[in-house]
Amino acid sequence: MFPEYRDLIHRLKTEDAHFHHLFEKHHELDHKITNMETHVIHGTHEEIEDMKKEKLHIKDQLYAMLVKASAAEQSK
Question: What is the pLDDT of residue 31?
């Protein structure tokens, strides 16, 4: 996810607790969705779709935080 921000992601995961929490939640949802889609664990189509929407919302938040942090770095 966002390979162009790899270094910034690493830094924010260690320096920003909220970013770290969102990043981990995104990862957990991704793993759970994959397990449901491959029938490793049970999940209805509606549950999977709801989790995909939540995951996308988190991804949008992460991206906004990355853009803001990147802009702040460049203005230094």
Answer: 98
